[in-house]
Each structure stands twice: as C-alpha cells, then as structure tokens.
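Supplementary Text 2. Reproducibility record for the structural model of the 155-residue chain.

All settings were left at their defaults, and a single model was retained for analysis rather than an ensemble. We include the record here because the model underlies the residue-level annotations in Supplementary Table 4.
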Amino acid sequence: MRIDVTNKAPGIQGVSTASGTVYIPPGVTRSVDMTEEQVERARRFGFLALVGAPEQIVEQGGATAELADLRRIVTEQELELVGLRKQLAERDAELAALRDSPADQPELHAVHRGRGSYSIMRGTEELVDGLTKADADQFNALPAEDKAAFVAAKD
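Retained model, structure tokens:
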C-alpha cells in the first residue's frame, strides 16, 4: 500500500519499506510502498506521521476522516514548530556571536597609574601592569589587533 511518511523527529530516520530502508530527513515527507506489517511497526513510533487511505491506517477502535484531518493538521504544526526552533537556534547563535564580538568591548589602552607606572586597561579592567612610559606610548600607537595580541602574549 502507498503511504506518505513524514519525519517529525529532529534527526534523520530510517523507515522500512517494501523496497528496503528509506531514510527521511527531519520535516520531510516521502511517499513509499509499505506492507501492513511495516505500517503497523512504523505507527508505533511517535516521530513518524503516516498518511494514507483512512481504512488502511486504523487506530485501535477505528479511525475517522476527521481524525485523519486532525493528524494532518498536527503534523503540519509540528513541522512548522521544528522550523521555528531551527530559526530560533540560528538567531541565538547570531546573538551570542555579536555579544562576544570585540566591537562590544572597550578599546585597549595604556594609562598612567601613578608613580611612573603604566597599565594596559580595557575599560576599568586592568589587564597588564608595570609598563614604563615608553612602553605605554608604543602600545597606544599599535593597531587594535596588535594590542590584543600583545595582551594575549602577556597572559
């Protein structure tokens, strides 16, 4: 019998069919030929949605056209939810990258800390101390990438 199988799981799933195992990516529907035994086995998995003739896919106690329609609607909504979760994860990753970007951090600069001693600061955080005035002047003349490399080398 011809059955439309939709993978509702977050990962690829293998489904036994009359012609062998078919691998279905998340959110994808494949139309496959299955025996009644294979349909029965596949129905046990909550992450697969099976759509075919109502008399071919029968729940215990019997399925109705209304139940088949409701299942189709639920499957569509679950697939939409999978897509939305993927979009949310992508946005979260973008936000994390933006939060960690150097543009958000104060610039590195060497400042006088008293008694002839200079320190490299990022905002109010002291990163390197004990520089001379000459070292501080040289540091302040460096481009931002070189300043970051200098501080990283001192850690």
